User: Fold this.
Amino acid sequence: MTDSLNRLTSWLCGSFSNQKQAFENPPLYGHIQVRYRPLGQLEPRSLLIEQAYAIAPKEPYRIRVVRPVLSCDQGLTVMNFTLAEPRRFFGAIDDPELRAQIRQDDLTHLEGCNYLVSDQGNHFSGSVEPGCRCRVRRNGRDSYLVSEFTLSDGGMDTIDRGHDPDTHEQLWGSLPGPFVFERIHDWSDELLPLWGGLITGKQP
Assistant:
């Protein structure tokens, strides 16, 4: 399972874009960039994620820290953390000095928002843990997140939807289908010197 954990971490490290999908279907999909980079000062395999519209890459609408782990209870898992005062770290994905300022004390674990991940060999598939506990407030309404992804060496597909906690009706999220991201940059080499050489070489 450690091999799976390291491969998952390596495949996440990079820059992803759905430019092709957005240009082919402009009414349905915005052009989005999703970028992950390691945070060597934090616990092993901690990654910063910034998600932004391509027209405003310095103003991410989502900035988090994720950490792939092996859990006794849940197996291969991606933990999700919010950042205190996240605007302090806008642009950190491109700024090593700013990334280095992120500390464990800045993180709050998002209860109920872990992703449970399965290694399918040539790709990983994951979804938010069951229980409807990953709460999101959007447009003045409370909702719970239903989210799934597939990740390969070449890209990532994701779909996020918010549902009413009482009626379970969908309140927001993609109706036509998942966002399809292609890998634009591979930053997995940045993992090599971190955490005592925990991750070695490009993961096949």
About this structure: The chain is about 10% helix and 40% strand. The CA atoms of residues 53 and 187 lie 20 Å apart.
